[in-house]
Design goal:
By secondary structure, the protein is an alpha+beta fold. The chain has 7 helices and 11 strands.
């Protein structure tokens, strides 16, 4: 890429020289200036008033980020086809989704699908701070319920079968062979090609993020009014309030 760009610039320069050679000679103007290096010596002086104000907020922020939200019985990392972190975040999201969702048609959420790339850091064993969760989920993504046609739901299954990494899912079990879906069940029931399905995901994925284009034409879109990061924090606080450690497990929900 850089070689191509330099080459193009070179041709432009040669072209300009050619134009100048063919143009009448013009009188050149002489411009004087002073070169000021960009370094510490020439940088602007620190504004101590502004710095003092910032330091107040910095101290409050550091205190907030150091707050212990819960204790984890294990280290949780992401992985493929499933992993402790994948399952933990997808399960708590689906559980909270069931709690918050008030469907007009009385049909609950069927399953949850999040994205592998959205899990940016592991959850450590032992104390889990607010900073740990911001590192895990630094985005402002909101939880949303999409109602998909059976056709779009099949496209979702095909996407999971061909994905190179394990996407976090909950309420869904799949068996994959040679990048093709062999078996699939939703909440213990086989897939029904005659009905739509409600999927809990994020607004980022609902907009086609990570090439999840099957989300782009839903039958219905309903926001839950909570960010995924806040959902994780709420779950941790609730577990801690009950005196329980957070934990996760592998259950073969996606298998090759």
């Amino acid at each position: 890429m850089s070689t191509y760009r330099v080459s193009n610039i070179g041709w432009v320069v040669l072209y300009l020289f050619a134009l100048m050679a063919c143009s009448p000679a013009k009188e050149h103007a002489h411009v004087e200036g002073t070169l000021i290096p960009v370094d510490r010596e020439h940088s602007a002086a620190k504004d101590h008033l502004i710095d003092s104000v910032i330091s107040i907020y910095r101290a409050d922020l550091e205190k907030e980020m150091a707050e212990v939200l819960a204790y984890s019985a294990q280290i949780m990392t992401r992985g493929t086809p499933e992993a402790l972190l994948n399952n933990f975040v997808a399960d708590l999201s689906l559980n909270l989704g069931h709690e918050l969702y008030r469907p007009a048609d009385a049909r609950p959420i069927d399953f949850c699908l999040l994205n592998y790339g959205g899990l940016r850091a592991p959850i450590p064993k032992g104390p889990v701070t607010r900073a740990n969760i911001f590192e895990l989920m630094p985005f402002e993504n909101e939880l949303v319920v999409l109602t998909l046609s059976a056709e779009k739901t099949l496209e979702l299954f095909d996407y999971l079968a061909s994905a190179s990494v394990g996407m976090p899912v909950s309420g869904l079990r799949m068996s994959i062979r040679d990048e093709e879906v062999r078996e699939v069940s939703i909440n213990g029931a086989p897939f029904d090609p005659e009905r739509p399905y409600k999927v809990l995901t994020t607004d980022y994925l609902a907009g086609g993020g990570d090439n999840m284009t099957f989300f782009l034409d839903p039958l219905n879109t309903e926001y839950l009014g909570i960010r995924l990061r806040d959902a994780i924090i709420l779950h941790l606080q609730r577990q801690h309030g009950k005196g329980e450690e957070i934990k996760s497990k592998l259950d073969g929900r996606i298998s090759y």
